[in-house]
Amino acid sequence: MPPRIACLLVPDLPLQAELRAHPALRGEPLVVASGADARADVVALSPESAAAGVRVHHSIAQARTACPQVRVRVASPVLEQTTRETLLDVALSLSPRAALAPRATGFFTAEGCVFVDASGVGALFHSEHGFASALAARAEAHGLPGFVALAGSQTVSRWVARRMTGGPNTALVIPIGGEANFLAPLPLDLLDPDDRLAQTLTRFGVKTVRDLLHLPRRASARRMGPELLDLVARARGEAPEPPLPEPAAARIEEAIDLEAPVDQLEPLGFVLRGLLSRLAERLALRGLACAALDVELVLEGGARDARRIGLAAPTLDIRVLLRLVNLALADHPPDAPVERVGIGTEGAPRRRDQLDLFRPHGPDPAALGQTLLELESLCGEGRVGAPEVRDTHHPTAFGMRPFAPSESPLTRETPCAGNASSAPEHACLQDAAPPTLPAIRALRPPVRAEVQLRAGRPSFIRSAVTHGDVLETAGPWRTTGYWWSREERFAFDHFDVQMSDGLVVRLCFDWMNRVWQIDGIYD
Q1: Where are the beta strands (DSSP E) in 62-142?
Q2: Looking at the predicted structure, is the pLDDT value of residue 421 above 50?
Q3: 3 state SS for 52-80
Q4: pTM of this prediction?
Q5: Which of the residues 178, 299, 413, 470 has an alpha carbon 20 to 30 A from that of 347?
Q6: Residues near 142 by beta carbon (within 8 Å), at least 6 away in sequence
């Protein structure tokens, strides 16, 4: 089967980038200019501005004269770049292969374009037109209205999408082998030739693609140069094109330049909410979640403040993400007013729970991850997890690892000895239950105690836990370690004592600090 390529084209990308970052501007007369000076050119404008008489390449002064209520925004390369990458995310949500088109020049410099592999899409969308319509609808749902053309090559599909700009249809499919017939009556400017070749073709009276295809190729190339052969090959759909690549690592970034430096955390929170919302939308398009956040602040004066915020589990909950970022900024505020904010993340698959037929259903992974995130935001980074035993003899040492539900094996009944079918009326003998052992409840931190000794053994204890005479004593059991390190060495003597008030406690003497402590109670 010949290749089939779809082109999603947004003709006024600077305008859509501003509306995507500032949704409140929709429906208002708006222009995007190349600079803040009154003589700066208008590069994109909203339909409301066009209805008032504003045109592309007007100056800001001319735009204000035609429409005094017009809102002016300066074109932001950062917003345009993130919007182009959003086009790629939209394409990858419907096809496994897609690539951004190189930036156009001249009259088409404001357009954004992405190529999508549409080979074999009829099995999923019933037809190629169904795929093109779905792609256009998904782009519009994410604030990027555009036009989708499907043809046999990247170049032809882009030309067809340009021809559709301003028309009523948002999706068009060129049948296999019909590219030349469709392009024949179109003006030559649609192919965007370079200025020298365009002037030469105009002098020879070549105005349409049909006229270009009727030129004698060898004689024309001798007089106009090899660029003509390349243009003819692209017009016929015969120019060699590299295949569309598979998506690279899912690194997704959002950034915005602030109109004025911000030195308060509360207004900065509104900016962060918008960035995180757009970041979550792009992650959802790829079926991913946020695993960790990389926040970069460009401060007034050129300094940069970069920090990484870890997450307990991948999530798309904007409320949780915003809370974590606000807590991180509140703990370590920026040293100067912020001029630009950027947030990036490596997309990670969301956790899934495999149900078991023989066990109760565990907590939902998303809900569990959100709970862990909120606990960590309250307790501090690195203070929420599951304890683990360290390879040391220190009685109070423990480690912390990320919490995950335990996969305990299923409990099965012990099979009966012999053939159960031969004597079904006989019950199986079960092993005797193990004896119940006392459990110790550790006290963290240990409780200081005053101890009186008699013949080298505790006889009376006064503390916040217990107070009275010692009835029974077992021990001591000495634990030592790290004798070679002045900072980490330890030596403890432990006693198990029964008190006159009925408690059984574990008494400890710390030889390093020369203090008595109660570090456990037996239940």
Answers
A1: 71-74, 98-100, 112-117
A2: no
A3: CCCCCCCEHHHHHHHCCCCEEEECCHHHH
A4: 0.68
A5: 299
A6: 86, 90, 281, 285
